[in-house]
Design a protein that fits this description.
Order of helices and strands: HHEHE
Number of strands: 2
Oligomer: single chain
Distance between the termini: 74 Å
Structural class: mainly alpha
């Protein structure tokens, strides 16, 4: 059987049969997909979000007593009225793997 009539082709022959514009397109798209996946994984890693504050003091750790919380709320409300500065206090049990900043 002559090589021209052989039904089996090597991988190199198959690659040479693919038009060059298809290879160029694939070589452009693959890095773009990789970059997209790399960029989109970072927000997923930081998905632990705290709820939006409803008051000036959010005691998620349960360490502030009611009297102290009331005094802080009053003080922070007066600060906002006098200086137009919004200051919020939040306590958490742990920051986990996240840095405090």
């Amino acid at each position: 059987m002559s090589p021209e009539l052989s039904p089996h082709k090597s991988n190199a022959e198959i690659i040479h049969m693919i038009p060059s514009y298809v290879l160029k397109r694939v070589l452009m798209v693959l890095p773009a997909i990789g970059l997209f996946l790399l960029v989109s994984t970072n927000p997923l890693a930081q998905s632990q979000k705290f709820p939006a504050p409803t008051t000036y003091v959010s005691d998620f750790a349960g360490v502030i007593d009611a009297e102290t919380k009331s005094r802080l709320e009053s003080l922070l409300q007066k600060l906002k009225e006098k200086s137009k500065i919004d200051l919020y206090v939040a306590t958490v049990e742990s920051t986990g793997e996240q840095t405090i900043s």
